Amino acid sequence: MINRTRDGLDESPQKAPPVSILVVDDDSTKRFALKTILAPLRDNVVEASSGADALRQLLRQEFAVVLLDVRMPVMDGFETAQLIRQRPRSELTPIIFVTALDQADTDMGRGYDLGAVDFVFAPVVPAILRAKVAVFVELYRAQQELRRYRSRLEPSATRSPTTCGRRCSRSMG
Questions:
Q1: 68: containing domain
Q2: With bands split at pLDDT 50, 70 and 90, how would you rate the model's confidence at 4?
Q3: What's phi and psi for 121, nearest 5 deg?
Q4: Phi and psi at residue 84, in whole multiples of 5°?
Q5: pLDDT digits (tens, 9 = 90+) for 95-105
Q6: Burial of 82 by CB count in 10 Å (0-12 exposed, 13-18 middle, 19+ buried)?
Q7: Does residue 5 fall inside a structural domain?
Q8: Please, which of 48, 88, 122, 142 could form a disulfide with 24 given CB 3.0 to 4.6 Å?
Q9: Which helix (H) or strand (E) is 67 found in, with range?
Q10: In whole angstroms, what separates CA 63 from the centre of its chain?
């Protein structure tokens, strides 16, 4: 990112603020492994040990992406994804399902039907997982930047027609 300064351009890279990534798995060892794999991204990794816990986390804050285990007791990943999609605040949050390779055929069709954006197969290849998550983190940051930009423009857009209207009517009258 290049920033403008009074003297010109500042080409020093600006570190974007960390965003949150939700990791949902009933197995604490797998959550720890996923968190460790994602650590080089330097973002905030929030852990949830069940589908219900994930839904509580999603009520508390926004996430750039959700890594969701398919096979969990009580509420599996598919049911959790369906509930995530029913909530307006999280309906567009990207979900990457984590599943065993031997279950891929049956899980993938159902997962995509429920709004999954991707799948990661266990055993997880760290570089692949980081690359996939990084894409969604960058998309989230870009969306946040657009929201900030739009919110700065909206107040001036609402003032402009009134201001111009008065000025224009004076010069025409």
A1: 18-149
A2: very low
A3: -105, 140
A4: -60, -45
A5: 999 987 666 66
A6: middle
A7: no
A8: 48
A9: strand 65-69
A10: 5
Residue with tokens 């993938």: 108
Judge contact between 81 and 93, C-beta under 8 A: no
- Compute the distance between CA of residue 21 and CA of residue 136 in angstroms, rounded to an integer: 10
Task: Give dist(CA 101, CA 97) in Å, integer.
Answer: 12
Residues with Cβ within 8 Å of 89's Cβ and at least 6 positions away in sequence, in order, are: 58, 59, 62
Residue 105 in any domain: the answer is yes
HSE, side-chain direction, 13 A CA sphere, residue 165: 6
Please state the domain count of the chain. 1
Instruction: Provide the pLDDT confidence category of residue 41 given band limits of 50, 70 and 90.
Output: very high
99 within domain boundaries: yes
pTM for the complete prediction? 0.78
Residue with the two structure tokens 């960390």: 18
Length reported for the chain: 173
pLDDT of amino acid 61 = 95
Q: What angle do CA 93, 95, 99 make, to 5 degrees?
A: 170
CATH of the domain at 64: 3.40.50.2300
Task: For tokens 């508390």, name the residue.
Answer: 60
- The tokens describing 154, both together, are 């909206």
Q: Could you tell me if residue 52 is inside a domain?
A: yes
User: What tokens were used for 76?
Assistant: 């599996």
